[in-house]
TrEMBL record, chains A, B:
<dbReference type="GO" id="GO:0006351">
    <property type="term" value="P:DNA-templated transcription"/>
</dbReference>
<protein>
    <submittedName>
        <fullName>LysR family transcriptional regulator</fullName>
    </submittedName>
</protein>
<dbReference type="GO" id="GO:0043565">
    <property type="term" value="F:sequence-specific DNA binding"/>
</dbReference>
<dbReference type="InterPro" id="IPR000847">
    <property type="entry name" value="LysR_HTH_N"/>
</dbReference>
<keyword id="KW-0238">DNA-binding</keyword>
<dbReference type="InterPro" id="IPR058163">
    <property type="entry name" value="LysR-type_TF_proteobact-type"/>
</dbReference>
<dbReference type="InterPro" id="IPR036388">
    <property type="entry name" value="WH-like_DNA-bd_sf"/>
</dbReference>
<dbReference type="Pfam" id="PF03466">
    <property type="entry name" value="LysR_substrate"/>
</dbReference>
<dbReference type="Pfam" id="PF00126">
    <property type="entry name" value="HTH_1"/>
</dbReference>
<comment type="similarity">
    <text>Belongs to the LysR transcriptional regulatory family.</text>
</comment>
<keyword id="KW-0804">Transcription</keyword>
<dbReference type="InterPro" id="IPR036390">
    <property type="entry name" value="WH_DNA-bd_sf"/>
</dbReference>
<keyword id="KW-0805">Transcription regulation</keyword>
<dbReference type="GO" id="GO:0003700">
    <property type="term" value="F:DNA-binding transcription factor activity"/>
</dbReference>
<dbReference type="InterPro" id="IPR005119">
    <property type="entry name" value="LysR_subst-bd"/>
</dbReference>
<feature type="domain" description="HTH lysR-type">
    <location>
        <begin position="1"/>
        <end position="59"/>
    </location>
</feature>
DNA sequence: TTGAGCTTTTCCATTTCGGAAACAATGGCA
DNA sequence: TGCCATTGTTTCCGAAATGGAAAAGCTCAA
């Protein structure tokens, strides 16, 4: 019969990329790790890890097995938390992946509020703009901005995402404001990294504009700084430049045009029959925080 | 760290209702079962089973834990089957719950066709008209006829369900055929057990008729036999009386009226990230068998 | 009241498990 | 190119766990 420890060890070996490292993390000698991986492979009749003495890689069977094992382990964690009566109470470690800018501006400031209600919970937050495979990377959930797709994940909408064209008053004073969409051709535009093309919706329907400008970067933080500094016109989300619009550091241009509306801010997590309390609570917290009309829209 | 054997033992104790029985089933002495249940409870800090020396019942925590453990165990089974390369091949035991009549008429005859393609698979089929909790009862899937509801289960539609009013020619000869819906009041009607009221849809909209007749039973098999024997008018599904309609043993009455159409034949299974191959294959088999227009409708 | 059948405890034999050490293999670095 | 630190594997041994038999305590039904 399968030993659960073998699965934990296997998962740790994969996530740490080495048997020795897994052994150190779990408090076992390398010998034990090696033996139990071998035993697991023998029982399954398959090689899970392709190993040289210096590095380890997953076989195809190993990859699929690993994805499943992660689900099983968190399932067990959740079942034990439930039975231990800590079901409605968050406990353990909550691993979250979130976009860098949004995470810094609209998650980080609210974390303390969540943590003080859940003292037994540790948060691991990774900010990245890569669309990581949350199940393979071992995340409990991710906050994402994008179109809702993704097969095996459940998405819960947190807020709509509005994107506006904007520039600094300074820039407008120097270059004038565009009156119609074609005027953009005579302006400095600041494309952001993963949407080189601007999908815009206006009174006359939708349109794709290819922005051209002096600055190309993969960092939306740099675009943000550049537009505030008066470098040109950018298409920015309201959550990103809401305060600047209110304070007058930025003004909207071509207000009849907005970014295409099929973007949403959502929380995604692996589909599971029983969602761990920590995940449910955190998503509820975010949803309540942003509400139907997020504070950055008001 | 949790021992997987403890979970298997716990699940078996619950499903068999006794520690001794679980021990016999798993090949352990009663002493071992007792010790490991105790260990599990100690680790969780909760009592899972309320026990007297003669019988065992689940505590609330135990019930929730049991539901989760079942998911975990089948998850492990699936993960191992995947890694063993038997992923696309059905293997193990497939436990199915199905309605009695439908199961006898439209599942049982086709089982051999499925089994000969999957020699490593054993089938456990339980026919019952109770809406059992498939996850708690340890079923992999169920075939159901009804309105699509149910929260945590995934339903896949297999076929629409049409229900017609019918009677034997013999009965019609003796009693005449009803011409309009109100005529039913002067006829013998045969209600079936779980739909005492007939929800009908006709040209003038829908209607609920309360059938009155000399025979009341909870067995749809008896209703079926009765209507064929000429005891009255019944509302039967086409999958039930299709052959009799074709052979002339039964004729449709009030053809402008049919049973309400929001009934479907569907396969339901617990929502899981990785569906076991055996379940997927069997559902595919049934779906292909019945097709968009089931053979009993043709 | 009795007895069958259940759970639990105790003690013992057996198996399994983990670690240290020795060994083999690889890749980085001088 | 050659050295060496690091890594995975194997072997052997002590320690811990597991499973079983027997006995005890209990409950329900006849």
């Amino acid at each position: 019969m399968t030993n659960l420890g073998d699965l934990e060890i296997f998962a740790r070996v994969v996530s740490s990329g080495s048997m020795s490292a897994a052994g150190r993390a779990l408090g076992f000698s390398p010998a034990v790790i090696s033996k139990r991986i071998k035993r697991l492979e023998d029982r399954l009749g398959t090689r899970l890890l392709q190993r040289t003495t210096r590095q380890i890689s997953l076989t195809e069977a190993g990859q699929g097995f690993y994805d499943r094992v992660l689900g099983i382990l968190t399932g067990i964690e959740e079942a034990e938390a439930y039975a231990s009566g800590r079901s409605s109470q968050a406990q353990g470690v909550l691993r979250i992946s979130a976009p860098t800018s949004f995470g810094r501006m609209h998650i980080a400031p609210h974390l303390t509020g969540f943590m003080k209600d859940h003292l037994d919970l540790k948060l691991h937050i990774v900010l990245t703009d890569d669309f990581t495979d949350i199940v393979a990377e071992g995340f409990d959930m991710a906050v994402r901005i994008g179109e809702l797709t993704d097969s095996s994940l459940v998405a819960r909408k947190l807020a709509p995402v509005r994107r506006l064209l904007c520039a600094s008053p300074d820039y407008i004073a120097r270059n004038g404001a565009p009156n119609e969409i074609g005027d953009l051709a005579r302006h400095f535009c600041l494309p952001a990294h993963n949407n080189d093309n601007w999908k815009l919706e206006g009174p006359e329907g939708s349109l794709v504009w290819h922005p051209e400008g002096p600055l190309v970067t993969n960092s939306s933080e740099i675009v943000r700084a550049a537009v505030i500094a008066g470098a040109g016109i950018a298409l920015r989300s309201t959550w990103d430049i809401g305060p600047e619009l209110r304070s007058g550091q930025l003004v909207q241009v071509l207000p009849q045009w907005e970014g295409s509306k099929n973007l949403t801010l959502s929380a995604v997590y692996p589909s599971r029959q029983f969602l761990p309390a920590k995940v449910r609570l955190f998503i509820d917290y975010l949803a309540a925080l942003y509400g139907p009309v997020p504070y950055w829209e008001q």
